[in-house]
Design a protein that fits this description.
By secondary structure, the chain is an alpha/beta fold. This is Ppx/GppA phosphatase.
Length: about 525
């Protein structure tokens, strides 16, 4: 008999520029492993945006929503316990991308997280690592999508370098290919553009390689798998099963590229293993791979059948505490990324960690009394607390607003776009004005996240006041709530019994107004010296 407590079924949907993919897996919680039940793919060409406005077209959004409804129906029929979804470059870059996600939520009932290119790259790495043993050898992973190409340098311990470049098979076909077969001039322009776009990430990747290291190249996703399919038909007469681990040479890819360049669409479509939609964009896709391999000076590439969708599964398992051995380092990816950004912007970590300690103490003690947020919101508060002062890197004046910008665009890993927006806003409102609807970045958020920001930034204000002199004057806080009179008593313990903590108490009186207004309470603070034990 199946132990349902130790198993769950998860569906992961990737809304890409070219296609929508879904994978459904059974997760064995005891083994921290998953088995693929089924996959689904639909080519919707979301990246075919309006050439004048750059917006997602009504037709493309309609195709995508119809596809997502089919995905949801299939997930329901398969008794999926959880369904997660992400959107990538096409949605990320379109001015009406958020409106599209709102439509999905309203019409289909799927909450979609918009992820950055760097986060997409990290999850691709996790997907590859879930099926390949790197054996202490560095690996370069290349994933060619419709709108972007992710190139990653990683080993079995961590991703050393993550990049996302705006060259994709659909994007390049739209921008550079208008002749069929392609003209010599267009082909030359296409190759030169790809080389120029890939030059910087590949140079930066090389700097992360240690002396005498020879990396292995891994290719993932549709374009590269199509190339491998055509290569296998030509050299083996069939597609190997499994496809995982199939290898191609750079020379073999160059031969395919030259063949595509000499053919028109109908001739490419006639090739065994070629789909109608892929035949339109395969020349641009093969250009990216060939140029990347040439610049990397690598002669071979091995195919990996797992990528972003499977990485989403691994990421879900990490965030739900189901992996604690092989990928243990990844379970702390958010915390490590926050600390990395804090160091980048020269944050005083001793002070920030003290603020975070106070903020989390208030959060924990008031949970179930004044708020009802959980572990996810607690982590957002911690992240905002660590980074709330990072704006000082730019200027002291209006540094809370600078903090918002740096957090929002700081390439934090492990977070969805809505998480980054929430963290940035919590940090932004640790001082000065409280959140207001006239503030554009705050007002455009869903109601739930505006409430999170209002309540958690009010807590952060108190925490900041408690370390006003930045000398560790306050040791700990005890909260006592009088529900009858709606009074919150803060009993503060001073580290030094001779310190009256006058500046902290004064600042607390000033900062508490926003907290009192938000929670509808009267806050009363009293000071005790460390020699006086608290009543437990």
């Amino acid at each position: 008999m199946t132990d349902f407590l130790n198993f769950c079924r998860l569906g992961a949907i990737d809304i890409g520029t070219n296609s929508i993919h879904m994978v459904v897996v059974d997760i064995d919680k005891t083994l921290a492993a998953f088995t693929i039940v089924t996959t689904e793919k639909d080519t919707v060409r979301l990246g075919e945006r309006d050439p004048k406005t750059g917006e997602l077209t009504i037709e493309a959004m309609g195709r995508a929503i119809a596809s997502l409804q089919r995905c949801k129906d299939l997930a329901i029929s398969l008794n999926v316990d959880h369904l997660v979804a992400v959107a990538t470059s096409a949605t990320r870059e379109a001015s009406n991308g958020q409106a599209f996600l709102d439509r999905i939520d309203t019409e289909v009932g799927i909450m979609v997280n918009l992820i950055s290119g760097y986060e997409e790259a990290r999850r691709i790495y996790l997907g590859v690592l879930s099926v390949m043993d790197f054996q202490d050898q560095p690996h370069i992973i290349i994933d060619i999508g419709g709108g972007s190409t992710e190139i990653i340098l990683a080993d079995s311990q961590e991703p050393r370098f993550l990049s996302s470049t705006k060259v994709g098979a659909v994007r390049l076909t739209q921008e550079f290919v208008s002749t069929d077969p392609i003209s010599h001039r267009e082909l030359t322009n296409l190759q030169a553009y790809v080389r120029g776009m890939l030059e910087r990430p590949i140079d930066e990747l090389r700097q992360k390689l240690n002396k005498n290291e020879t990396p292995k190249l891994v290719g993932t996703s549709g374009t590269i798998q199509t190339l491998a399919t055509l290569h296998a038909y030509e050299h083996l007469g069939e597609i190997p099963n499994p496809f995982q681990g199939y290898q191609m040479t750079r020379q073999g890819i160059q031969e395919l590229f030259r063949k595509f360049a000499s053919m028109d669409y109908k001739e490419r479509l006639s090739l065994p293993g070629m789909s109608d939609k892929r035949a339109e964009i395969i020349l641009a896709g093969s250009t990216i791979l060939l140029e990347a391999m040439t610049m990397l000076e690598l002669e071979n590439i091995v195919i990996c059948e797992r990528a972003l969708r499977e990485g989403m599964i691994v990421d879900w398992m990490l965030t739900h505490g189901l992996i604690d051995n092989r990928w243990r380092y990844q379970s702390e990816v958010r915390q490590r990324s926050v600390i990395k950004i804090a160091r980048k912007y020269q944050v005083d970590l001793v002070h920030s960690e003290r603020i975070a300690q106070f903020a989390l103490s208030l959060f924990d003690q008031l949970k179930g009394i004044l708020h009802y947020w959980g572990d996810e919101e607690r982590e957002l508060l911690w992240s905002a607390s660590i980074l709330h002062n990072c704006g000082l890197y730019i200027s002291h004046a209006a540094h809370h607003k600078h903090s918002y910008y740096l957090i929002r665009h700081g390439e934090l890993l492990g977070f969805a776009e809505i998480d980054l927006e929430t963290i940035a806003n919590i940090a932004r409102y640790h001082r000065k004005s409280s959140p207001k609807r006239k503030h554009e970045d705050y007002s455009k958020l869903p109601d739930k996240y505006r409430k999170i920001i209002k309540q958690l930034s009010a807590i952060l204000r108190l925490a900041v006041a408690l370390d006003r002199r930045q000398i560790e004057a306050i040791k700990e806080i005890e909260c006592k709530y009088d529900a009858e009179y709606k009074k919150l008593h803060l009993h503060l313990v001073a580290v030094n019994p001779d310190d009256d903590c006058a500046l902290e108490l004064w600042n607390l009186e000033y900062k508490k107004i926003v907290f009192e207004d938000e929670y509808g309470v009267k806050l009363i603070a009293t000071l005790e010296c460390v020699c006086t034990p608290l009543n437990k």
